[in-house]
Amino acid sequence: MTDITKNAIAPPRSFLSQDAIQVFYRLLAALLICAVLAVLSDSFLSLGNILNVLRQASLTFFIASGLTLVVLTAGLDLSVGANVALSACIAGTVIHTTGSPALGILTGLACGGIVGLLNGIMVTALRIPSFIATYGMLWVLNGLTYWYMAGETLHGFPAGFRQIGSGYLFGLPIPVYLLLVFLGIGTFFAQRTIWGQEIYAIGANPVAARLSGIPVARRLLLVYAVSGTMAGLASIIFLSRLNSAEADIGESLTLPAIAAVLIGGTSLFGGVGTVFGTFIGALILTLVLNGMNLLSVSANWQPLVTGVIVILAVWLDMKTRRRAQ
Length: 325
Fold this sequence. Notes:
The chain is mostly helical and about 325 residues long. Helix 3 (about 45-70) runs parallel beside helix 8, helix 4 runs parallel beside helix 6 (about 130-150) and helix 5 (about 100-125) packs antiparallel against helix 6. It has a two-stranded antiparallel sheet with strand order 1-4. It has a two-stranded antiparallel sheet with strand order 2-3. The chain is about 75% helix and about 0% strand.
């Protein structure tokens, strides 16, 4: 790597960085929501409800974590939910056909990664804006999934496989352990590796990043492939959790994942945000929806509340950016 490239890449973010301060504020918001819900509902602090919140937040995080890297480059992946659906259906078919959960897991991960790579190729080689490329991919994947499933539903998977999404270990849901593992990996990759710093540099100024020697196209291929692979991982978790797969399994997953990324402080303009912030965003979103359920608020209001939260998150991001200029 040249000296110019090294100088163009920001040093690893410290605990007192602006990103860390934003995460701290969001953590305080999550704690405040917890305090309010604890007062309003006697059921909120029950062990079963807390474990349910952690499980649901982890499922959102698996999709949102890979998406975070895409948004850090000022891109967007709208196909993650459809990717989950296709990957889950193909993985479920492989498990039913071969009787091998391991082969099904590898198939789901590979399917998700290939879709992500195709997104990256459209963005880099064909120079299609990420919004258009992944929106088109969403419809392609939906069509393929509905054609592949032909209205059928797969169900009844091996008990060992089902433990991935619904099992417990030492009293904690297994998805929570997986969350901790990938939260650590994602945070280390983004904050403490040269590749991660290059991703931030691309999001901050892609032209300057290219002129400084950063292989922009290869890094974009990487982030879209990672986003797709994490969608593939999420497909395995959902498949084992639900013990079934059908064509519409991913239709409600994309917008909450995007919401978690934005609520967590990752800027749509790129270059600002953290994977840990996305985890806090997923937790905040889950807490709000869980609180509405506990307070018997109609489910019809949940999309409205989610939309308002996303709008506020983007508005705060824009205000912060204007003050920084």
